[in-house]
Design brief:
The protein is α/β, with parallel strands linked by helices. 42% of the residues lie in helices and 8% in strands. It has helices at residues 2-12, 84-91, 109-112, 127-133, 138-156, 158-166, 176-184, 190-194, 198-218, 236-245, 254-277, 290-298, 347-365, and strands at residues 37-41, 115-117, 169-173, 223-227, 283-287, 307-311, 337-339. The strands form 2 sheets. It has a 5-stranded parallel β-sheet with strand order 2-1-3-4-5, sandwiched between helices. The protein has a two-stranded parallel sheet with strand order 6-7. Helix 5 (138-156) crosses helix 6 (158-166) and helix 9 packs parallel to helix 11 (254-277). The longest helix is centred in the last third of the chain and has 24 residues, at 254-277. It is globular.
Length: 366
Amino acid sequence: MMLVTVLVFCFATLIILPPSPTTCTASSSSSPSVSALFAFGDSTVDTGMNNGLSMPLYKCNHPPYGKDLPGQVPTGRYSNGKIGVDFMASNLGLKEDLLPSYLDPKLTDHDLLTGVSFASGGCGLDDLTLQLTQVYSMQDQLEYFDEAVERIKTSVGEKNGSEIVENALFVVGVGTNDLILNVYDFPLTQRKSQFTSTDQYFDFLLQKLGSFIQDLYSRGARRFMVAGFPPIGCLPLQQTLGGIINLRRRVCITQQNIDCQTYNSKLQALLSSLQTTLLPSSRLLYYDIYNPMMDMFNNPDKYGFVQVSEGCCGTGLVELGPLCSRLSRTCPDASKYMFWDTVHPTEVALAVVVDYNQKTVLQFLN
């Protein structure tokens, strides 16, 4: 029973992250004018929202998470160090260091003015995903955003508050949990019987994502950066599970990667379609996770990696969340590993993703 519970947790929190650099080249002095950064979605952009949840399966505010943060403090980030939105906020000159979560008990109204993360590890677009994970839904995150905007307007006034929202960057990273839980690793779920193809399920998810973006737009958001899927079939956890079927051969699951490419193409088409329906002042950017990650898998020496198929924490085969604990051994140097746990990249790997997208992002924001 415990093994089933742990595997359910593993699948439910399975997500890869948007941007993040230790080697990012942009400086705040050359950054375009962005008033704030607001992040929504899952563990790819969660900076600690889940810390107060009673269910421990969807929290990572314990060692060795945060091992390479100042003071080695575990903050609820699914990595050994900073995650993408931390670096983005810093590069844009919005934060000196970390992007706080909205539910951080130390958060001040002044902190809100330059942005926070509302994201929750284990979240998805599909209601069935949330029934299992019991974390903050996308709707919950919207409601927290509404609350945050009221606080901002109380602090700086109605007009200034509206301008902060209008000039902010809205980062959205979500959907991988839905695919893992409802298509790949639990194929007997309601969605598997409801949709005759993975393509149909993608359309279902993207309809929900489009509605979420429009909900943010109706609240004054104008600039959106939406992350695509990573190559899910190459995640260490998925390779481990695939190895059970493939006589212990841990290799990337080709069909899952093909599916991710299909989803990413559909996502780009959705963003293009939405662009035509919103005001000309509104802009939407597809953030590419898939290609830089595949390049790391295929050319590890190029990035100084000695391991791209196992995580740094524990055996590197199944550990994440509660299985990656203070009792787990960790690799001597996380910068030599592509993954921190069996799902989430190391800070250095995320830096590669940021650098890959950096020029496109700056052009988008200017």
